[in-house]
Design goal:
Length: about 475
């Protein structure tokens, strides 16, 4: 499906700009990815302020995260077609321009549906921007220096989520939640300008895209996510909710059938038939659910239950982000030396401990303990991500690695969208149920009851994940024999 930029196009530009060209390209794609990753996470600290401004509850406001993640999944699938059709430069600048427009719309939006639409636009274009980095770095760096380049790039990308909570909190308290949309614009504009100068512009009109598969996937995602989010307000027996749920599931089945027969599918689902790879896909979904749902819930918990300001809750999450940035390369190093099952098991246990401790916390809990328990969760995810990806792709022959990588990334994003969706709905349902049974309780205690149920649900999900981990480890053992 993909006509990626050929080495010759990068080589021509390399001759023009000299030995430093590879660093110009790296800085361009890293700045673009940093901008969209920062935008993806910075808004989480602003959610309570947005809830107050637009008078929306948990089972509604989560669309700011869910819509972004679901749209980002679709954008990632569009990237290969856009790069082939417009060239790296055209596709990158087009996506970055769309991201800037969506950010401006979000910053000035006067109603909640417009705000959600802006987040969907951000997610769609962010999904088109991120994959450029891997292609560009692999093109401009020789084989023996790609590891170094990816390490530098990875640290830069991880830095975004690490500083986003603190930056977002300061902006919300000092200015407005709207500033979380505007703050990324200078970096986005600079990235677009650098891309226009340093990325190759060759494309082809022969690029093709599975538009039928894209439509089936998009409609199915919207229907399923909307039906789950509407269960609490509309009820299980609401005809529209039931129609959306059943229709979404049927469209998902049709999508799978279509992808198995179309010549150039969006997702090469046949790789799931490889022994053990489906377990790696499930683990990626679980990991995505835990990562994005906990990132969404934690700042809300600190503000609505613990009574902290936006800036204080943001600072509370900085150590967790830095911990993940630290453990990520360590986990990658250990992956080549320690059995995968052992590393991922420790990651699962760290995350389960984090969720259980946060659920058991009471309102007066010392802030330092909350920070430590949040750190446990990020350590867990950091220990899981490199070995799961490495182990899953290690089960595939070389010619299927690119398709397998797309499936793993797809699983992580879909898991994140479903995780945020279900966690927010569960938190709202549990809060409302607790309020009915204890009408005299203060609002902080009501919010805490909802978050407790959501944290416990995430912990149970990660406990269940030991089963696919066992199957993945067994498949790896058989493959090595």
């Amino acid at each position: 499906m993909q006509d990626a930029p050929t080495p010759r196009t990068y080589a021509v530009l390399g001759e023009r700009f000299g030995a430093r060209y590879k660093w110009y390209v790296s800085a361009t794609v890293m700045l673009g990815t940093f901008s969209v990753v920062l935008a993806a996470t910075i808004i989480n600290v602003a959610v309570p302020a947005i809830m107050t401004r637009f008078n929306v509850a948990q089972d509604q406001v989560h669309w700011l995260a869910t819509g972004f993640l679901a749209a980002m999944t679709v954008g990632m699938l569009l990237n290969a077609w856009a790069a082939a059709r417009f060239g790296s430069r055209g596709a990158f600048v087009l996506a970055m321009g769309g991201f800037i427009v969506a950010s401006v719309v979000g910053g000035v939006s006067g109603d909640f549906p417009t705000l959600v639409a802006a987040r969907v636009g951000q997610g769609l274009t962010a999904g088109m921007i991120q994959p450029h980095a891997l292609v560009a770095i692999f093109q401009v760096f020789p084989v023996h220096r790609r590891g170094q380049a990816m390490g530098i790039y990875g640290m830069g990308v991880i830095l975004g989520p690490a500083i986003a909570p603190a930056l977002g909190g300061v902006l919300v308290d000092g200015f407005s939640w709207r500033a979380t949309f505007i703050v990324v614009l200078p970096a986005c504009a600079l990235a677009a300008a650098l891309a226009w100068r340093f990325l190759p512009g060759r494309g082809t009109r022969r690029a093709s895209l599975d538009w039928v598969g894209m439509a089936l996937l998009s409609i199915s995602l919207v229907a399923l996510l909307w039906s789950i989010a509407s269960l609490h307000r509309r009820g299980v027996f609401d005809p529209l909710v039931d129609l959306a749920l059943i229709g979404g599931l049927l469209l998902a089945v049709v999508f799978v059938a279509w992808e198995r027969r179309v010549r150039e599918p969006l997702l090469e689902l046949s790789v799931l038939a490889r022994p053990g790879f489906a377990s790696g896909f499930v683990l990626s979904m679980v990991m995505g659910a835990g990562l994005f749902a906990s990132t969404y819930l934690a700042p809300l918990y600190f503000q609505q239950s613990a009574g902290m300001s936006a800036s204080a809750s943001g600072l509370m999450l900085v150590p967790a982000g830095l911990a993940m940035a630290f453990v990520f390369p360590v986990a990658g190093h250990l992956t080549d030396r320690v059995p995968i099952g052992r590393i991922v098991s420790w990651g699962l246990l760290f995350f389960v401990a984090s969720m259980v401790l946060l659920a058991a916390a009471e309102i007066p809990t010392t802030a330092a303990w909350l920070v430590i328990w949040a750190v446990f969760g990020r350590l867990g995810v950091g220990l899981m991500m490199p070995p799961i990806t490495t182990a899953s792709l290690g089960l595939l022959p070389e010619e299927q690695l690119d398709r397998g990588s797309g499936i793993i990334n797809f699983g992580r994003q879909i898991g994140g969208a479903l995780g945020v969706n279900l966690s927010a709905v569960l938190a709202q349902y549990a809060s409302d149920f607790y309020r009915l049974r204890h009408p005299a309780e203060p609002a902080q205690r009501v919010f805490e009851a909802g978050f407790d149920y959501a944290f416990v649900a995430l912990a149970l999900l990660f406990v269940i994940a030991f089963w696919p981990l066992h199957r993945l480890s067994r498949a790896m053992s058989r493959a090595s024999d």
